Each structure stands twice: as structure tokens, then as C-alpha cells.
Amino acid sequence: NHGMDDQFAKQINQFWQIYRKNLSYFFTERSDDFLIDPNKCAYKFLQSLSETCKVYTFNYTDPYEYIKHYKHREIIHIHGVHHRDTFKKELMVMSQYNGLVLGVDSECIPLDAMENKYIKPIAKIHQRGYSQTNIVDDLSESENIIFFGFSMNEVDFGYFRKLFHEIENGLSSCKRIVYINLNENAFHTFCNNLRKNGVNLDLLVNNVNLQPYYTEQGSENEEFYGILKLL
User: Fold this and answer.
1) Cα–Cα distances in Å, from 71 out to 53, 116, 224?
2) Res 1 pLDDT > 50
3) In the beta sheet, which residues pair with residue 123?
4) C-alpha dihedral (69, 75, 79, 81), degrees to nearest 10
């Protein structure tokens, strides 16, 4: 059983199959309403990004689908992209998410479980359409990094482990990390998640300028305009 109880692994796999079959309910026509409103912070932020910015997204939808008057830039979908239903049905049809990379990152699966016959199919690396992105190398070479609405939870931390390790040891090119989220509580969650994943926050802020910005007051306040000036 490769070090993992088969019965427990089978239960995990069964939950996983249920999740896959019900995924379509997450993609309704109104799933991206926050981007349709040009007064929303997310809309103005995306509209203002410099062409030189490289944009990675963990979302399955194109963040620029509703953004008007912007020069096209490459959007790198880490987990694949969902193509909308051109027939305007209320829910996407099952075939539409064939291009999505669903599953768990290998870094989050214990080594003794990776070869279990029930767990192995859940790993993203074994999903059809999986391809390795350059996000880890791009982060290492970037002087300015912006996290928008990202909590840095354990599931996705594997992509950033090398970056924070290099910053802690003074080996990173990064000079500034801008963190944008709703409010101060969200920033505390971000910091706590870094600590839980073994990041020494004191070393981090000694070696890089960590700047939090909040969108709670909307896009018309002075602080949000300060964010846009950084882009």
C-alpha cells in the first residue's frame, strides 16, 4: 500500500470524483461579476497593469475577459483555463473543463502516498493538459512582485517556497512585495500562513520591502490610487 492505508486513500479518491462531477456548478454566467463593474478595484488594477508585467493567475477564468481598452498581454494560467459556454447556457457543460488541470500539487502529497493507486490520479502532474510553468524561476528573477487577493495557503505555497527561502537568505533579486487584499485581517492571514509554512517573517521584512494595501474602501480612495501609481 506504499505506506498509506488503502481504505483511507480510496475514500479520498471517492470525494475527489464527486468534486470533479460537480465542478460545473462553480462556473455560472455570474461568476465574474466583480470584473464587469469598471468601478471595482480588481477591474481598475488589471486595467492599469503595465505591459511589462508578467501576469500569473491561479483562477480558471481569464481575468481580462471583461476588461476594456487594454493592450493584450499574455495571461499564464497555472492550472489551465476554462472556456466559457458560447451558447449562453446557465451552467457550463462537462466537456468545457477538459483543459483545466484539477488536483493537488505534488509538494502537498506525502511521498509515501504518491504511488498509491487511489492517490496518484489526484496529483496535478498526472492530469491531462498539465504543463510546468516558469513561475518559480520568474519569481526568483523579479524585483517587484504583486500578490492580489491571495492568502498564501498551504495548497499553493509550494510555488513560492523557493522565493521566500532566497529572500530569507539574502539571495533573491526581489526588492519589493506588494500585497493587495480587502483589509488588515486579510494581511494578517497572509502573514500567518507564511509563518505556518516555515517562513521567518522577521528575516523577510529585513531583506525585502513588504507593502500591504487594502481595497475595503473601494477604488476611489487615495490609498488605492497609490497602488495604481506603482504599476
Assistant:
1) 12, 46, 22
2) no
3) 104
4) 50
Whole-angstrom Cα Rg for the chain: 19
Matching residue, cell 506525502: 110
Total-model pTM: 0.77
Q: Burial of 79 by CB count in 10 Å (0-12 exposed, 13-18 middle, 19+ buried)?
A: buried
- DSSP, collapsed to helix, strand or coil, labels residue 151 as coil
Residue 84 banded pLDDT, cuts 50, 70, 90? low
What grid cell was written down for 89? Answer: 447556457
Q: Which of 114, 94, 118 is nearest to 106 (CA)?
A: 114
Which of 61-65, 86-90, 153-157 bottoms out in mean pLDDT, i.e. has the lowest? 86-90
Residue pair 63/57 in contact (Cβ under 8 Å)? The answer is: yes
151 contacts 188 by C-beta, under 8 angstroms = no
CA 67 – CA 70 distance, rounded (Å): 7
* Residue 154 or residue 204, greater confidence: 204
Mean pLDDT, the chain, as a whole number? Answer: 80
Q: Which amino acid is at 188?
A: H
Burial letters 130-149, b for 16+ CB under 10 A, else e: eeeeebeeebbebeebbebb
